[in-house]
């Protein structure tokens, strides 16, 4: 073919390109497909279409100026509007990023419309003059948001159109546009099958499960975070526990573990029982709450601990107001009826971190007894009537009580159930609507306090829902409340008339962590619906898009709380604590989103498996950033274990899965494990930066060492129901370290774990044998079906469990 001469005309594109728009997008509006142009206009456009081709093919010079002007006017056609929906609605100039600068300034949810129909077309010319400081336009439709899930293959395959280059053959161009259109449809309709019906998630028994007791009279649902579910990934570990009742020595070992478990359970239940003399007394509840308070120096220390640790992400109390009432209380001038309940709740939360008994001791010398304090607070709340139920102080006490109870509640389901009442109480009080909607009746000070409370409730709802793998009670679009401002508590006071402007996010304030958490809330709230329908999805696009956003938020945390440059040890540990808490609130949704795909799906994109393994390793290596020789290192380690115990157990089992995938050549997850262990950057990943550590291969030996350190930490803090989780991690680790695990070596390692647990719990073999004799005649396992091994209807291992080893495999599991 003859080469086309470069055209200097703005309207050189042919009018017969079947409704194509600028940038290679496809106009599939009804008008462009079904409404033909008038005959004269169509004939005139065809003549204009043929004239440039003839002149260029015969090498004629440029057309006359009047013809150029006439042609540029005749080929004007609408172009797609690429601004976000919020900027279009408010007629603001959009920079076409995600999120755009306008939505970031006003804290709005930035969204793009994916439909390229006639309603999204502007009336301006197809030619845009180059504007300074404008970012390059996206090669994908606006609804895709340009995240990690959108592959840039279309942009690479579609040549850029210019005035001096020939147009792409029509058939090839339409084919590329149809491919892009199919991708957009798959993103917007994940349940629609465009790929042959292949479901991308792992098998359901590794995502969720149900315990069934007493002939299905009692059931309990468990999600993907539970060790009960994760154990289905390790057949050798389950087989070892099911077969050891036939070996006498190992039967004695499991009997010892059962006695240890029962002993720890009995001690925990005794410590959790409220003190009867306070709970069942006929004295007024205010008097009983006063009687269990410790002395003022102890209260001062606990309050300082609470505001330094807990009142950072979850903003419940205004510190200046609380301090004023606190001073009045000790002076005997207290006027607020709800302050004593608030004070007792604050002391309960702080006692979990600041006392040796972890808030379960009966002595008032070091703190309060959390179960007794919670029982008295609940009695006070149940006695409220009428308008007292919808006061802001009552809601604060409800949130504080929930926060204190979940510190000692072993089941996340119980906290999730109680949170439902708090969410509905807050909505009844109108906290889900922005206070500006009720001005001038709503004072500015209380409006900002309500914003802080609402975003605390939404964040707790999201965290507990992901922990239980259950739906969120609050969804995106259910509230209009705007995020709180990045301000210090001292800048807020009851008589203020106007809020001061918010400070930059990198400036440290009392509310900095909650403000950044609110910035990430939109992406995190998309995780729970995705996880609940993950086994019906047939495309990775939306998962990759949300995961890429969360990864970017994680990278930004290191800029807000830098790891280096702080010389003071106290400030360094405080900054480490803030960074870990904020990192965990973003990393938990990322792990929940990737886990059903990263563990057990052969065709998962490599960036998912690598990101999941990397995040699991980060959780288990948080403490490596601090010097173990610090005076308060042990206190920080205890706090790390209490807050993140479930997370580190899940991370340890997840890393064991990758160890198994690499150590065993015949493993089904061999390719998956190799992809995850290769931590070098890949051009298809959308991660903005890589540290030097990520460029190093993560060997199985390094992973084993990290899991072993995590197991040692769990053993050192063993209590309550931790025995089963410790045995689960220990057996799984021993079965995945070698290609062919041997029962004798596993049993030898378990004997070492038992001795370490006995030392940590201050027990001896003699006391344990006395416990075993006591359990010989009880019905501890009588009538209980075993987890996963109910005959042929179990999870793949035939036979039933015996009384000696069956108690480890959680009962009633189908």
TrEMBL record:
Q: List, in alphabetical order, the Gene Ontology terms for molecular function in this entry.
A: DNA-binding transcription activator activity, RNA polymerase II-specific; RNA polymerase II cis-regulatory region sequence-specific DNA binding; zinc ion binding
The answer on whether this UniProt entry bears the keyword rRNA-binding reads no
> GO annotations under biological process?
DNA-templated transcription
Against InterPro entries, the record matches this protein to: Fungal_TF_Env_Response, XnlR_reg_dom, Zn2-C6_fun-type_DNA-bd_sf, Zn2Cys6_DnaBD
Q: Please list the residue ranges annotated as the Zn(2)-C6 fungal-type domain.
A: 83-112
Q: Where is the composition biased (Polar residues)?
A: 115-124
Q: Name the Pfam families for this protein.
A: Fungal_trans (PF04082), Zn_clus (PF00172)
| Biased composition annotated in UniProt, kind: Low complexity | 41-66
Region of interest (Disordered), residue spans: 1-86, 109-166
Among SMART domains, the record links this protein to: Fungal_trans, GAL4
Give the compositionally biased regions (Basic residues).
67-80
Which cellular component, as a GO term, is one annotated location?
Answer: nucleus
Keywords carried by this UniProt record = DNA-binding, Metal-binding, Nucleus, Transcription, Transcription regulation, Zinc
Output the SUPFAM superfamilies linked to this UniProt entry.
Zn2/Cys6 DNA-binding domain (SSF57701)
**Could you tell me which PANTHER family the record lists for this protein?**
HEME-RESPONSIVE ZINC FINGER TRANSCRIPTION FACTOR HAP1 (PTHR31944:SF131)
Q: What is this protein called?
A: Zn(2)-C6 fungal-type domain-containing protein
The uppermost taxa in this organism's lineage are: Eukaryota, Fungi, Dikarya, Ascomycota, Pezizomycotina
């Amino acid at each position: 073919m003859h080469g086309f001469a470069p055209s200097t005309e703005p309207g050189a594109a042919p009018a017969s390109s079947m409704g194509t728009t600028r940038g290679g997008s496809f106009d599939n509006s009804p008008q462009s497909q079904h409404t033909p142009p008038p005959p004269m206009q169509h004939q005139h456009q065809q003549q204009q279409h043929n004239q440039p081709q003839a002149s260029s093919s015969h090498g004629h010079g440029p057309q006359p100026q009047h013809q150029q002007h006439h042609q540029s006017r005749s080929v004007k056609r609408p172009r797609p509007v690429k601004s976000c929906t919020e900027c279009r609605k408010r007629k603001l100039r959009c920079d076409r990023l995600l999120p755009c600068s306008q939505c970031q300034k006003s804290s709005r949810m930035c969204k793009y419309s994916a439909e390229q129909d006639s309603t999204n077309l502007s009336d301006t010319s197809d030619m845009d003059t180059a504007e300074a400081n404008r970012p390059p336009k996206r090669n994908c439709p606006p609804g895709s948001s340009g995240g990690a899930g959108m592959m840039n293959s279309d942009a690479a395959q579609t040549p850029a159109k210019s005035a001096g280059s020939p147009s792409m053959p029509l058939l090839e161009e339409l084919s590329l546009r149809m491919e892009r259109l199919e991708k957009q449809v798959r993103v917007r309709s994940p349940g629609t099958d465009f790929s042959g019906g292949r479901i991308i998630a792992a098998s359901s028994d590794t995502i969720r499960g149900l315990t069934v007791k007493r002939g299905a009279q009692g059931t309990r649902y468990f999600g993907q975070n539970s060790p009960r579910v994760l154990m289905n990934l390790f057949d050798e570990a389950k087989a070892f526990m099911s077969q050891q009742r036939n070996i006498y020595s190992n039967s004695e070992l499991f009997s010892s573990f059962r006695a240890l478990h029962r002993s720890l359970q009995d001690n925990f239940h005794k410590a959790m029982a409220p003190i009867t003399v306070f709970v069942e007394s006929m004295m007024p509840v205010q008097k009983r709450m006063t009687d269990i308070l410790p002395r003022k120096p102890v209260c001062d220390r606990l309050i300082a601990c609470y505001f330094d640790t807990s009142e950072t992400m979850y903003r419940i109390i205004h510190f200046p107001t609380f301090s004023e009432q606190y001073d009045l209380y000790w002076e005997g001038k207290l006027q607020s009826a709800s302050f004593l309940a608030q004070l007792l709740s604050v002391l309960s939360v702080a006692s979990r971190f600041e006392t040796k008994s972890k808030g379960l001791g009966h002595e008032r010398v070091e703190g309060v007894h959390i179960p007794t304090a919670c029982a008295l607070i609940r009695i006070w709340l149940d006695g409220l009537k009428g308008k007292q139920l919808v006061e802001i102080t009552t809601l604060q006490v409800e949130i504080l009580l929930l926060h204190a109870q979940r510190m000692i509640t072993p089941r996340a389901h119980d906290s999730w159930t109680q949170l439902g009442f708090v969410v509905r109480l807050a909505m009844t009080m109108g906290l889900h609507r922005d206070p500006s909607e009720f001005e001038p009746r709503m004072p500015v000070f209380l409006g900002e306090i309500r914003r802080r409370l609402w975003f605390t409730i939404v964040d707790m709802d999201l965290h507990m829902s992901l922990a239980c793998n259950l739906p969120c009670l609050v969804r995106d679009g259910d509230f209009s409340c705007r995020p709180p401002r990045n301000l210090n508590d001292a800048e807020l006071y009851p008589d203020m008339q106007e809020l001061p402007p918010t400070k930059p996010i990198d400036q440290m304030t009392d509310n900095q962590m909650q403000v950044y958490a609110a910035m990430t809330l939109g992406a995190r709230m998309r995780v729970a619906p995705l996880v609940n329908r993950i086994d019906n999805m047939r495309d990775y696009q939306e998962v990759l898009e949300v995961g890429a956003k969360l990864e970017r938020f994680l990278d930004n945390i290191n800029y807000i709380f830098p790891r280096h440059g702080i010389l003071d040890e106290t400030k360094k540990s405080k900054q480490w604590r803030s960074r870990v808490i904020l990192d965990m609130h973003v990393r938990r949704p990322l792990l929940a989103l990737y886990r059903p795909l990263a563990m057990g799906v052969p065709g998962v994109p490599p960036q998912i498996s690598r990101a999941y393994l990397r995040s699991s390793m980060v959780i288990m290596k948080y403490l490596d950033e601090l010097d173990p020789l610090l005076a308060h290192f042990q206190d920080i380690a205890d706090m790390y274990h209490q807050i993140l115990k479930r997370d580190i157990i899940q991370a340890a089992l997840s890393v064991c899965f990758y160890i198994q995938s690499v150590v065993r050549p015949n493993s089904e997850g061999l390719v998956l494990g190799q992809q995850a262990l290769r931590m070098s950057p890949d051009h298809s990943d959308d991660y903005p930066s890589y540290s030097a550590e990520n460029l190093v291969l993560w060997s199985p030996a390094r992973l084993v060492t990290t899991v072993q350190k995590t197991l040692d930490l769990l053993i050192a803090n063993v209590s309550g129901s931790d025995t089963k989780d410790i045995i689960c991690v220990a057996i799984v680790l021993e079965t995945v370290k070698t290609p062919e695990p041997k029962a004798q070596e596993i049993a030898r390692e378990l004997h070492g774990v038992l001795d370490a647990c006995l030392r940590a719990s201050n027990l001896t073999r003699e006391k344990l044998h006395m416990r075993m004799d006591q359990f010989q005649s009880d019905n501890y396992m009588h009538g209980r079906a075993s987890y996963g091994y109910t005959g042929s209807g179990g999870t793949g291992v035939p036979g039933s469990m015996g009384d000696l080893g069956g108690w480890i495999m959680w009962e009633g599991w189908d």
